[in-house]
Specification:
- There is one protein chain.
- The chain has 2 domains: about 20-245, Spore Coat Polysaccharide Biosynthesis Protein SpsA, Chain A (Alpha-Beta Complex), CATH 3.90.550.10; about 260-400, no CATH class.
- Helices cover about 50% and strands about 10% of the residues.
- The protein has helices at about 30-40, 60, 80-90, 110-120, 140-155, 170-175, 185-195, 225-245, 260-265, 270-275, 280-295, 305-315, 320-325, 335-345, 355-360, 365-400; strands spanning about 20-25, 45-50, 70, 95-100, 125-130, 170, 200-205.
- The model is unreliable at about 1-15 (pLDDT under 50).
- The chain has 16 helices and 7 strands.
Length: about 400
C-alpha cells in the first residue's frame, strides 16, 4: 500500500499491503485511459482487463505506461474479467484489489477512503456507497439499488447501502476461496452473499459518483432484460440455499453469539429485548410480516409457528413480527376462504355443505387439496398486503418519533 495519500487525515501506512486497482472494461476507450492513469499515484499498480472491446485497441492505449493490461479476445462478462484479475494478482502476491468501472462514474480521488477502510477492516469487502443525491442520477438506478439491497439483506442477513456499486475493495486471499459461479454482472451479487455466509464482513464507505446529463451518453455493457433475468435467477438460487440448514465454512472466525439455546433458556427477558431491537427498520419489519403471512396462509397444519420461526431465523428477520403476524390468519376465516377459492378453481362451482357426517368425512382429503390450491393464490396476495401495511405503519411511527 502506498505510504502517501493513505487516508483523508494524512495518516501514514506502516503495514505493507500490496493494493492494486482493477478496471474491467469493454468499449470504454474514451474514458479508461484517463481513469487508470489517475489511479496510479494512489496504489501499487493498476490492471485493466479488456473484456473483448471492439471500439479500440486497449493495449495500445497503455503502451509506454505503468498500467498492466490483460485481454479477453471475446467478451466473457464482467464477472469473468474480475476472476481473471484475481488469478493474475494472486500470482503477483497482491493483497487487495480495488475495482472501478471503466465508464468514468467513479472518482480516483475516493481511493484513499478505501485504503483507510482496508486498514480498519482487514477481513471485509469494502463497498463504495455512491452519493445518489444528485439530480442527474437516473430513477432506474435509485430503484435498482433499493431492490438489490433488499435481496442481499434477505439472503445474507447484512444490510448494505449500495449493493450495486462496482467501486469495491476485495481481500484477495479470502475471496479466492469462495465458491463463485457467476461470470457476468451476477458475480457482484453472488460475491457479497457468499462472503457474508463465509464470515467475511461487508463494510460501506461513502464515495462520489458521476452520471452524465440526459443528453450525454454513458457507455455500459449492462443489458436490461438479459442481465436482470440472470441476476434474478441468482437471487432465487441464493434464497433457496439460504433456507437450507447446512452451515458454510467460516473463513473468518465469527464473534461469539450470545443468542444460544442455553442463553435463551436462562435469560428469556434479555433474549426478548434483543429480538425486539433487531432488524427494526420499516423495510425489515415489512419483510418479516410478508414472510410470516405467506407461511401462515399455507396449510402447514400444526407446524405454522415452527415453520415461521425456522424461515425467519434463517433469513435473520424480526422473529416477533414474523411469528405474531400469523394470528391475523387464525382459523376459521383464512382456511375457509382458501377452501372456498380452491373448490371454485378446481370444480368451477361454489362449495356446498355435505348432507351427512359420513359425507363430510369422505370430503376431508378434498378439502385439504382445496385449501392448498386456494392458499397458493391467497398467500402471495395477503402477504404483500400485510407487508406493505406494516411497512407504511412502521414508517409513520418512525417519522413521528
Amino acid at each position: 500500500m502506498k505510504a502517501t495519500d493513505y487516508s483523508t487525515n494524512n495518516s501514514i501506512c506502516t503495514h505493507h499491503l500490496l493494493v492494486w486497482v482493477v478496471v474491467p472494461v469493454r468499449n470504454n476507450g474514451g474514458t479508461v485511459r484517463s481513469l487508470a492513469m489517475q489511479c496510479l499515484p494512489y496504489v501499487d499498480g493498476v490492471l485493466v482487463v479488456d473484456d473483448g472491446s471492439t471500439d479500440t485497441d486497449v493495449r495500445q492505449l497503455f503502451t509506454g505506461t505503468a498500467v498492466r493490461v490483460v485481454t479477453h479476445p471475446v467478451n466473457r462478462g464482467k464477472g469473468a474479467a474480475l476472476r481473471t484479475a484475481i488469478s493474475f494478482l494472486r500470482e503477483l502476491g497482491v493483497d487487495w484489489m480495488i475495482t472501478m468501472d471503466g465508464d468514468g462514474q467513479h472518482a480516483p480521488e475516493d481511493i484513499p477512503v478505501f485504503l483507510q477502510a482496508i486498514q480498519e477492516h482487514p477481513h471485509s469487502i469494502i463497498i463504495g456507497a455512491r452519493d445518489f443525491s444528485g439530480a442527474s442520477v437516473p430513477g432506474s438506478s435509485r430503484f435498482g439499488r433499493r431492490f438489490s439491497n433488499m435481496w442481499i439483506r434477505l439472503e445474507s442477513g447484512i444490510s448494505v447501502s449500495d449493493t450495486q456499486s462496482g467501486f469495491r475493495a476485495y481481500p484477495l486471499s479470502l475471496i479466492a476461496q469462495l465458491p463463485l459461479r457467476g461470470n457476468r454482472y451476477e458475480f457482484e451479487v453472488e460475491v457479497l452473499v457468499q462472503a457474508a455466509w463465509h464470515g467475511i464482513g461487508l463494510v460501506d464507505v461513502p464515495v462520489s459518483v458521476w452520471y452524465p446529463d440526459p443528453e450525454e451518453f454513458l457507455v455500459s455493457s449492462f443489458r436490461k432484460w438479459r442481465d436482470n433475468i440472470r441476476i434474478s435467477l441468482v437471487h432465487a438460487r441464493l434464497c433457496m440455499r439460504r433456507l437450507l440448514p447446512w452451515p458454510h465454512r467460516k473463513l473468518v472466525k465469527p464473534a461469539p453469539d450470545r443468542m444460544t439455546p442455553y442463553f435463551l433458556l436462562r435469560h428469556p427477558v434479555l433474549s426478548m429485548k434483543r429480538v425486539l431491537t433487531d432488524n427494526t427498520s420499516p423495510g425489515e419489519l415489512g419483510m418479516a410480516a410478508t414472510v410470516g403471512s405467506f407461511l401462515a396462509v399455507l396449510p402447514l397444519v400444526g407446524v405454522h409457528t415452527a415453520a415461521i420461526l425456522y424461515v425467519a431465523a434463517r433469513l435473520r428477520l424480526n422473529l416477533v413480527m414474523a411469528v405474531n403476524i400469523q394470528h391475523l390468519y387464525a382459523p376459521p376465516v383464512t382456511p375457509l376462504a382458501c377452501i372456498v377459492l380452491g373448490h371454485y378453481i378446481l370444480r368451477q362451482s361454489w362449495i356446498t355443505i355435505p348432507g351427512s357426517f359420513r359425507g363430510a368425512v369422505s370430503e376431508v382429503p378434498h378439502y385439504l387439496l382445496f385449501w392448498l390450491i386456494g392458499s397458493l393464490i391467497l398467500a402471495p396476495l395477503l402477504s404483500l398486503l400485510a407487508g406493505g401495511a406494516v411497512y407504511v405503519l412502521a414508517r409513520a411511527i418512525k417519522r413521528d418519533r
